[in-house]
Amino acid sequence: MAKTDPYAALRFKEFNIFLLVRFALVFGWSMQFLVIEWQVYDLTNSKLSLALIGACEFLPAFFLAPFAGHIVDKKEKRSLFTLCIALFSLISFGLFWLTSDQIENNWSTNSILIGIYSLVFFGGVLRAFFGPTIFSLIALIVPKSAYPNAATWSSSTWKGASVFGALCSGFLIAWIGVHYTLGIIFGLVMLALILVFQISKKPVLNKATNESIKESLKSGIDFVFNDKVILGALTLDMVAVLFGGAVAIFAVFAKDVLDAGPRGFGILNASLSSGSILAMVATTYIPITKNTGKKLLIAVFGFGLFMILFGASKLLWLSVIALFFSGVFDGVSMVVRQTILQLKTPDHMRGRVGAVNSMFVGSSNELGAVESGVAARIFGAPLAVMLGGSVTLLTVLVINYKNKPLRELDLQEDVEEKFDELKS
After folding, report:
1. Which pLDDT belongs to residue 191?
2. 291/260 Cα distance (integer angstroms)
3. 214 and 337 in contact (C-beta within 8 Å)?
4. Are residues 118 and 97 in contact, defined by beta-carbon separation less than 8 angstroms?
5. 214: how many CB neighbours lie within 10 A of its CB?
6. Where in the cell is it found (predicted)?
7. What is the pTM of this model?
8. Residue 262 burial (CB < 10 Å; 0-12/13-18/19+)?
9. If we measure between CA atoms, which residue out of 200, 249, 220 comes closest to residue 349?
10. Is the pLDDT of residue 148 over 90?
11. Is there a contact between 57 and 126 (Cβ–Cβ < 8 Å)?
12. Is the pLDDT of residue 273 over 50?
């Protein structure tokens, strides 16, 4: 048996560069979204305007994802990634320019808002391409034997950058203002653009040049829905986020349930995120390829169980513990899911499978926020979270009973075979 190497993927120079690029992009993107939300709300004082921002990014990202997956499979991945970053830099610069004193003094509020919404919509178009491009590029940077470790480091980088970006955005707005914060974001994107050229161009593995767009899209969707392992893993993640998540109503718990105020709101968010990040780092030392399916089912079940405890809690310290362990299980499930997708997706279909994955994950995040708000309005926040956690548990039990291929999935042999091939 091959010995687990927690730094297997990091031994490849291009993967380290990829992580730096991804951190800069995700850190900048997460800051940019929150900064723009702040700016738009400051200009309009309307909650509906915030919903419009989310819609402008979500709609093109969701509906263009299948087409983006087709393009990604047909094109050279490094060049496409570079193009996406270059276009993202134009968005960042455009937002930086729209928040300058010159524009604010000479343009009407409506004109500025139209400019912001247009750039956010353009960002949603790019988001449709980023997901499948990154998913495909990882598989071309490291050998298959290092896929599980690469998935762990990539997911940890994404989560850490998201959390760090969210934390820094508020401090930077207060310290240097919206305009200069967006300037820093533009600088981060330009840094990513410079670094990405340190990654060499990769071969195009999809040789089906005569395949029509319709046939290509259909084959990608059919593959996901006919593969019980991949479909089961995506379904678990979607249901957990759609029904089990409660991030969108943390403010309600902090203010009305736990009487913890703004500080408690920050603590609740930090508890969930810190649990996820620590779990992801831990999985670099703990092998997840043995009994992979069972580990995924246990992780999602544990997430739902602790979210029920969070919903039932009336004490801040108990809520913090519940969210921390929810984050731990969520972090494990995220890494396991990414590992399954990397190892079980054929090279020539990575773009399309990555696109479907983006649709599952992306839609569940946005729709989950809507579901949480509506359920909290109807049932009250505590009962809404407990019901969502119960739906998550029920889904795990049904998939465990109905989906034997996922339940019995073990990726150890896949990894060991590739490890032996690499040594020989």
Report:
1. 97
2. 41
3. no
4. no
5. 9
6. Cell membrane
7. 0.80
8. exposed
9. 220
10. no
11. no
12. yes
